[in-house]
Design goal:
Blueprint: E1 4-13, H1 19-30, E2 33-39, E3 42-49, H2 51-63, E4 70-79, E5 87-89, H3 110-116, H4 160-167, E6 188-192, H5 203-212, E7 217-220, E8 225-230, H6 234-244, E9 252-254, H7 258-264, E10 265-266, H8 269-276, E11 282-287, E12 303-307, H9 312-321, E13 325-329, H10 341-348, E14 354-358, E15 370-374, E16 377-382, E17 391-393, E18 402-404, E19 414-417, E20 420-423, H11 433-450, E21 456-460, H12 466-473, E22 477-481, H13 483-495, E23 501-511, E24 517-526, E25 529-536, E26 539-542, H14 545-549, H15 552-562, H16 579-591, E27 595-598, H17 601-613, H18 623-630, E28 643-645, E29 652-654, H19 656-667, H20 672-698, E30 703-706, H21 713-723, E31 728-729, H22 741-754
Parallel strand pairs: 2-5, 7-14, 9-12, 11-15, 18-21, 21-22, 23-30, 25-29, 30-31
Antiparallel strand pairs: 1-3, 1-4, 2-3, 6-14, 7-8, 8-13, 9-13, 10-11, 11-12, 15-16, 17-20, 18-19, 19-20, 23-24, 24-25, 26-27, 28-29
The structure holds zinc ion (2 copies) and fe (iii) ion.
Residues 109, 111-112, 130-131, 133-134 line the site of one zinc ion (ZN).
């Protein structure tokens, strides 16, 4: 049998995920000799053996990579055979900088879990157990290349037994950078409310007892602190809400295992896969009536956000507590998640009754990710821990590195480099100094990891966004990208589409090229260019931002528009509003003073929700809109009349007939569930009309659905049905809302830079 040689290059997330030892074992099984090494772009293999052995080797590589690895490309070419006699793992060379892939944090694997549950194992009950298939990664990395001394595990020299595992290619812990055991690794501590060390107690047992007793415990996790309490105790949940000043936003709940998840919510096979995925996001699920979870955990919605334990500490704690636990970000509302011990004690001591901490530092803040099924498809709504910094491949490589600064709410940023885009962790709403600081630090860190300082800076067109102000302060070429153009481009980037596409971009608000607030946009996009082919008739926001909170104002404005003879002020919504206040807003609308104009579909959700749920105020962005979505009765298929008005440029969808018909329904005693469903169906029908008209103008092209409104499962499904048989693309790995904006900004900036124009 003659020997052959192959040079194999593997690209993707293949470093720090147990890829090389797996290759080593595969080579052994296939009867192949040679070597494997990490390089700056992934993994390189030189393999020697018979043709059959090499084919088996390559086949194995394609069919069953390690769970956390993501192979983006695998290519090979023939090289002269060598007689190496064995297969070896070559130590990491210092990389040259491009396409370094630091892996994301990985949920505890089954083998490690079995060890911490096995009384005879040396890692029994050890909260920092990990291996090459699981454990902390991104959140502990200080520098690249990713090696133990460059992580916050550098403070823990490995003991002889851990070192032996680390050096044995046949061991599951071969080159597992955070490898640790009770003898040499990080340790837990229990602290009182003022941060005093509690001695003589098992920290996990102490925390579990405190939680069962109804107390609030701050727990150090992977990417920051959680605030935890008993999810089945209405008192504990109410106390946490009060102290955290998070009056009504839903809390996430951690459950022990799938069985417990299924006792609390309806879980489909696709949702189960999402819950169990190595990213371990919070998954939004339909809550069961009988769930036993305090109703205050997620008021206002039929959904509940559940997640499975993703660190050994979580597994131990949940087993000990024996009940589902609220696990919400350890911060005051609107501030970034706390991640240092001292910082947490300073910031959370007024909230938590005690702390469960450890001595491994968190280098990068990284909130829990959120995902759900939309139109049957897993969709990331908040892309952070577990995904960051996994890259998104770009078909057309960036000719120059790009920093995209993202939006204002739910901010993430993005760095485009060579053939990939790297989205940073969820930063949150850029509305205070703490968040701005976290934003700047996170950008600096990712730039350091990627060894790049982009000179092309993409940002939103809104002049007052903090991210825009940050962009202006950077040196280099600035590229302002229209908000909805960026939304559409984000979906295009995700699917490798260069256009033309028709983008349906629906959200609350985005700055338009005319300076007004857009948000119900039909855009034809091709690379760096877009054309606006349809929109919604604007409604007034009396008092501007005040109307986004006091949604009754938008409802009144919408009624004023729909009833030229004067809005019906006898509707229940207005009965609780002070008369003079109501008159004042009425005058604002009639005279058009202190009014911004908005075309956002989200604003119609606000207005309809306010009116027919009789809810005057949104306590957080989108609250009433989400409640309006949640209540819809899906068995209802009727819709309301509407008009597509071609006399405007671009044509406008006029919902005034729908408003009047819905008010008639309401007066006739139809409940909000039916009115809401009809409203959803109406938006879908209107979208169909807008899209078909745009097709007439520009030919039939693929459609992408994007913007915050497409977190709404029912609306998305109805629009897909309406547009059939057109081919429709949805978001998946990247949020449809503003959390995905930066990817689109990077896409547009790249298109502009590479064609050399502006
Ligand atoms: Zn493991
Ligand atoms: Zn050890
Ligand atoms: Fe948006």
């Amino acid at each position: 049998m003659t020997s052959e040689g192959r040079h194999i290059e593997v690209r993707g997330t293949v470093q720090g995920v147990g890829f090389r030892p797996w290759i080593w074992r595969l080579a052994l099984e296939s009867g192949v000799n040679g070597r494997v090494s990490n390089d700056s772009r992934g993994v390189t293999i030189e393999a020697f053996g018979t043709e059959g052995a090499l084919d088996t080797f390559l086949h194995g590589m394609r069919t069953a990579p390690p769970p956390a690895a993501e192979i983006r490309s695998l290519s090979w070419n023939a090289i002269p055979p060598e007689d190496t006699g064995e297969f070896v793992i070559v130590a990491s060379r210092l990389s040259e900088g491009l396409e370094v892939s630091i892996p994301p944090d990985l949920a505890t694997c089954g083998e490690c879990l079995a060890e911490i549950r096995d009384p005879s194992n040396r890692r029994y009950g050890y909260a920092f157990t990990n291996c090459t298939n699981c454990g902390p990664r991104f959140t502990i990395v200080r520098e690249v290349p990713y090696d133990r001394p460059a992580t916050t595990m550098a403070a823990f020299p490995m003991c002889a037994r851990c070192r032996a595992e680390y050096e044995d290619p046949a061991d599951r812990r071969f080159h597992a950078q955070p490898n640790a055991c009770p003898e040499c690794g990080p340790r837990l501590q229990a602290l009182s409310a003022d941060g005093e060390l509690l001695l003589g107690t098992d920290p996990v047992r102490w925390a579990a007892r405190a939680l069962v007793a109804g107390l609030i415990v701050a727990i150090k996790g992977l990417g920051g602190f959680h605030l935890a309490c008993d999810a089945t105790s209405p008192d504990a949940v109410a106390r946490l809400r009060r102290r955290k000043r998070r009056e009504e936003k839903p809390f996430a709940v951690m459950v022990r295992d799938l069985d417990e998840a299924e006792s609390l919510a309806h879980v489909s096979p696709a949702e189960r896969a999402l819950l169990e995925s190595t990213e371990r996001p919070i998954v939004l699920l339909a809550r069961k009536e009988t769930s036993g979870i305090a109703s205050d955990v997620a008021p206002d919605t039929s959904l509940v956000g559940l997640m499975l334990p993703y660190t050994p500490l979580h597994h131990l704690l949940l087993a000990e507590a024996g009940r589902p636990l609220v696990m919400t970000s350890g911060n005051l509302s609107e501030e970034p998640i706390a991640c240092g011990n001292a910082e947490a004690i300073a910031r959370l001591s007024g909230i938590a009754d005690g702390f469960l901490v450890h001595d491994r530092e968190i280098e990068s803040r990284c909130d829990d990710s959120v995902a759900r099924l939309i139109a049957g498809r897993p969709t990331v709504l908040r892309r952070s821990r577990g995904w960051v910094p996994r890259s998104i491949p770009f078909d057309a490589p960036f000719s120059e590195p790009v920093l995209a600064c993202g939006g204002h709410l739910k901010n993430t940023f993005c760095i485009g480099l060579a053939g990939a885009a790297y989205l940073g962790p969820h930063i949150g709403d850029l509305e205070n100094l703490e968040t701005l600081t976290a934003y700047e630090e996170a950008i600096d860190r990712l730039e350091r990891f990627l060894r790049v300082r982009p000179e092309v800076i993409a940002h939103d067109m809104h002049p007052a966004y903090v991210s825009t102000v940050y962009a202006r302060g950077r040196s280099g070429r600035k590229v302002a990208v229209q908000h909805h153009h960026a939304h559409v481009a984000s979906a295009m980037a995700e699917h490798g589409l260069s256009g033309p596409v028709l983008g349906v971009a629906y959200d609350g608000t985005g700055y338009g090229t005319d300076g007004s607030a857009w948000g119900g946009e039909i855009l034809r996009v091709e690379g760096a260019a877009f054309e606006r082919l349809g929109t919604f008739r604007p409604i007034a926001l009396p008092g501007g931002d005040a109307a986004i909170r006091e949604v009754w104002r938008i409802a009144l404005a919408m009624l004023s528009d729909a009833y030229p003879e004067g809005p019906p002020r006898d509707l229940s919504l207005f009965s609780g509003i002070d008369r003079r206040h109501l008159d004042g807003v009425d005058r604002m609308i009639a005279q058009g003073v202190s009014c911004a104009w908005a075309r956002g579909v989200g604003r119609y959700f606000d207005a309809f929700g306010a009116l027919f749920l009789e809810r005057p105020v949104s306590r957080y962005e989108g609250q009433v809109a989400a409640a309006w979505n949640s209540i819809a009765d899906e068995s209802e298929h009727d819709s309301y009349p509407l008009v597509l008005d071609p006399s405007h440029d671009p044509p406008e969808l006029d919902l005034r007939p729908a408003v009047r018909a819905a008010v008639s329904d309401y007066r006739a005693g139809r409940g909000p569930a039916r009115i809401s469903a009809r409203f959803h169906n109406t938006i879908a029908r209107g979208t169909g009309a807008l899209v078909r008209r745009a097709f007439e103008e520009s030919g039939v092209v693929p459609v992408v659905l994007t913007g915050g409104c497409f977190q709404n499962d029912l609306l998305t499904r109805r629009i897909i049905e309406e547009l059939a048989p057109a081919s429709v693309f949805l978001h998946g790995r990247v949020p449809p809302g503003d959390g995905g904006l930066a990817l689109g900004q990077a896409f547009v900036a790249s298109a502009i830079v590479s064609r050399g124009g502006n």
